[in-house]
Structures are given as structure tokens and as C-alpha cells.
Amino acid sequence: xxxxxxxxxxxxxxxxxxxxxxxxxxxxxxxxxxxxxxxxxxxxxxxxxxxxxxxxxxxxxxxxxxxxxxxxxxxxxxxxxxxxxxxxxxxxxxxxxxxxxxxxxxxxxxxxxxxxxxxxxxxxxxxxxxxxxxxxxxxxxxxxxxxxxxxxxxxxxxxxxxxxxxxxxxxxxxxxxxxxxxxxxxxxxxxxxx
Length: 194
Description:
alpha+beta, 4 helices, 10-stranded mixed beta sheet, 37% strand, globular, 10 strands
């Protein structure tokens, strides 16, 4: 019960602190077709953003297909959803970083011209830890799809950039850039295959 309340407290703090796209303290890591940035707002948050020539529904169908993330995103080696709708994701990180995994719950929020697919840590559900992976117990973030009213959709992916362990900032920045690019590139590739 104690872990449940700690998880609930973290979830409410983390989700309320996810910075918005117009947050003025994003630090740019990459500009262009795919923009990537990070900020320190209660946690290290990372953002990847790109415009797609697709309808929100087409993008949402892929983003909600969490049990097939391992077939969509290059670095994800396993993604499973259990009967409680809890998702376990295992990620292959580049050397010298160790591989990571996280256990999350997704929630869909519908707004006018926008869909948010938010996730937060679900550590109160017992998923055994694998000794070859570092568990990211503070995993949180969101996909945000915004209808641009011109047949295009602005897609942003925000995630808690904490990786645990003792990696220097330059390695973290490289990992965030790689992850931000991979997410958007793999999403576009999946849409092209449909």
C-alpha cells in the first residue's frame, strides 16, 4: 500500500509538470524537420516534434498499438500489455549505456483539434525486473497530436529523460537526440508501410 501512495504522488507531480510545447525554457538540441529539445522542470524532460502529412486517426492507430512497439520502433526490443492494461517496454540503448525498461499505464485525453496519449509509471503492478535492464521507475510523458487544419498533423513526443546511472551530460544529450529522431522517423516509416 505504501508503494501505491508513493507511485500516486509521483504520478500526479510528474504529469502535472510535463512542459507544454509553448513552454519558454526548452533548450534546443536539434532544429529542422524533426525538432528536439530538453528542459529541467522538476525532472529532465525531452521533446521531439515533427509535422506529418497524415490524419490524426492514422497516427493514433499506430501510437495506441503499444503491444507492437517492438515492431515499430528500432530500439524497443519488447513491448507487452497485460490484463490490467499495464505496458512493459524494454529498450536497447547504445553503448556505453545499459539497456532500460519501464512499466507504464497509458491514458487518452481528447480535446478539440488535439489528442493526448499520456503515460505514467505503474510501479505498483509487479513486473519482475530483468538483471540485464535498468528499470526506469519514473517513466512518464505523452504523445500529442494536433490537427493543423491543412491536412497535416503536428506530432510531439515528450518523455522524462532520466536514464538513471551515472552518464555524463554529453552522452545523455546524444541519447535524447537519437531517441527523438528514431521516434519520428520510425513513425513515418510505419505510416508509409500501411
